[in-house]
Amino acid sequence: MAGLLLAWSAAACASSGTAPGAGSADKGPKSIDTYRKEGIKVAVADAPPYSQILADGKVTGASPEILRAVLKRLGIEIKDGVVTTYDAMIPGLAAQRWDVVAAGMVIKESRCKQVLFSEPDIVSTMAFGVPAGNPRNIKSIADGVANKDLKIAVLPGTFEEGVLKKAGVTAGQLVTVNDPRSGLEAVKAKRADAYFYTTLSLRQLVKDDKSFDVTEPPKDSPVTGAGVAFRTTDTELLKAYNEELNKFKATTEYVELMKKFGFDPEAVKGVTTAEMCKTAG
Amino acid sequence: MTWDNEFAMSVLPELLQGLVVTVKLTLCGISIALIVGLIAAVLRFQKIPVLAPVLGFYVQFMRGTPLLIQAYVAFFVLPQYGITLSPFVTGVIVIGLNYSAYTAEVYRAGIEGVPTGQWEAVAALGLGARRKWLRIILPQAVRTMVPVLGNYFLQMFKDSAILSAITVVELLAAAMKVGGNSFRYLEPLTLAGLLFMIISFPASLLIRRLERRFATTH
Amino acid sequence: MGAVVEYAPLLLRGLGITLLVTVLSSILVVVVAFVTGLARLSRHWFVHWPATVIVEIFRGTSLVIQIFWFFYALPLFGINLVPLAAAVLTLGLNGGCYAGEIVRGVIKSRPKGQTEVAIALGMGPWLRMRRVLIPQSIPAMLPPFGNVMIDLLKNTSLLSLVTIADLTFRAQWARSKTGETVAIFLTLLVIYFALSWLLGLFTKWLERRFSLSRRSVARPRRLQPVMGGE
């Protein structure tokens, strides 16, 4: 009865879904050919300039655009984009909710055990978003460690969260927020004194808002090399992707693309995934 | 990639902490729902010209909009008008007010359910308002109200998980947090579900017993 | 208010998903409600036990957890439903288990005499259910079913937490892009309120339509002669 009911309703629902047959029941890896035929589904964050989905449904931002350009060389198209939270990106990849994550996800040790990272495609910085004039004078991560009554807003599951925790910022000081804009609103609502996030996203968020400042990237924050993340079974895809990515990074197209979104195209030089995977956290 | 028992055991302590928050959240929410609901019901019962329709609308509105959106409004909109409360306090107030709309209706139905004969008898005996309410009407109304309220509070207990969306670190949020840190959702989510059941199942049996006990006396 | 106008087409598309999910899952709710409700009334333990277990699981745990579980954990067992199907399934099963208790409760509360008369007429258990008990029970089921449907509508907002682009998801997204938090959330409240109000009216209409009026008594359907049920 239980199984029957479940199976029956599953069948009823599958037939009523909009995109039948997406994601097969077997857990084996999809071949590159399958991706060529079916397209690829990408998870992004709503965090320009790294990644975002526009009002017309187009997936864009530096990370998805690099993904798109490289996949195009492999004959694969981005079929669908989903905005999700950082903490759900890797579990969703395992659950086959999407095939690749292109959200400027920073390469680090714990994540390297769960997903396959491409070679780094964006190397960038983090900073604090603070009320105008920086009343609490927050300039470095060490300030957060030294001053235990400082509250810092951070997105759960992000590299930033790991950096703060590892530096010794206590759990009680961290104010978790569920999406990038909520971090800013947490500071405005005085739930937090500062918001630790990527420099460029912060600048984009506060662009017209005079009540916020974005600090210089703290000197004590580590290098953040980001790449796109594939399922652990997609080794074939990863290999082909990296080959094309390395070629792509040498082109002027890559340089233009990075400049367009405000990133430094030089920063990525010499940074490797193998090295970044040693970053603890 | 299936069940990892060792991992499940390792996340249990953090989930139990989340469960404690969930229970606290529910108990505080129940208190608000009981009190605000009573005020709303009594005021509506007085049939005060302007207030009665306003309260009627309040009940309709709270019942007609999703708890999630109410929580978002309280959490994101109120601070823009200078009211900033912690996620927990915001959560308690929102869920308490949300369920006050339901408890108000329960009170109303309970009081109206007391047979007319009883009201007439009270009038005939010339009993004062205090004795009328405390001795005659409420004791009878409570009998029918208790199981219904119980069911709503059980529902509130389960609904409190919605408040994870405004970063209250209750059971579901705790599960998502450990899940996010370890990149595994299966064990934390399943355990969170089990923990909800461990409390809600015995509670529902208790409520059913109350239902039966009170039902037979009529 | 500018953001609401600017993003109106997207919000409308989100509204479309909200309505689609509501309609599809409400169909599933009705089916699951009758299956579990009737199964739990069965005299056979192998029918009512599994139904009871399912109902207790869905009623005992939180819907949000079920949504997350169906979305992120179920695929690990090789059951890979598209997001919309997973959404409809979760809402349908959850709502159906609540509604199933309504079905069971109402049918159980029918006067004993009805069953006795039906037995005396030689009707089997299934025919009794189909021709006597269920038709009589529908008017009593409609108001609580209406509440289940309104809950269902409200619960679709939870799907925004698992990347389903419903009204709430689109609104969150518009808010993220524009920062016009107040206007967008207040618009959401109004839309959901209007929808549940309409759903309430629809239920009222159904109640009138299916009330045990004299008209329907005046045109009784003739029973076919039966031998021990169908």
From TrEMBL, chain B:
Its main location: membrane. InterPro entries: AA_ABC_transptr_permease_3TM, ArtM/GltK/GlnP/TcyL/YhdX-like, Ectoine_EhuD, MetI-like, MetI-like_sf. GO terms for cellular component: ATP-binding cassette (ABC) transporter complex. The keyword Transport applies. It comes from the Bacteria. The chain crosses the membrane at residues 20-43, 55-75, 81-99, 161-179, 185-207. Keywords: Amino-acid transport, Cell membrane, Membrane, Transmembrane, Transmembrane helix, Transport. Residues 19-207 form the ABC transmembrane type-1 domain. Pfam families: BPD_transp_1. Belongs to the binding-protein-dependent transport system permease family. This is Ectoine/hydroxyectoine ABC transporter permease subunit EhuD. It comes from Planosporangium flavigriseum. The lineage of its organism: Bacteria, Bacillati, Actinomycetota, Actinomycetes, Micromonosporales. The gene is ehuD.
TrEMBL record, chain C:
The gene is ehuC. This is Ectoine/hydroxyectoine ABC transporter permease subunit EhuC. Keywords: Amino-acid transport, Cell membrane, Membrane, Transmembrane, Transmembrane helix, Transport. GO terms for cellular component: ATP-binding cassette (ABC) transporter complex. Coiled coil: none annotated. GO terms for biological process: amino acid transport. The chain crosses the membrane at residues 15-39, 77-100, 182-206. NCBIfam families: ectoine_ehuC, HEQRo_perm_3TM. It is found in: Cell membrane. It is a multi-pass membrane protein.
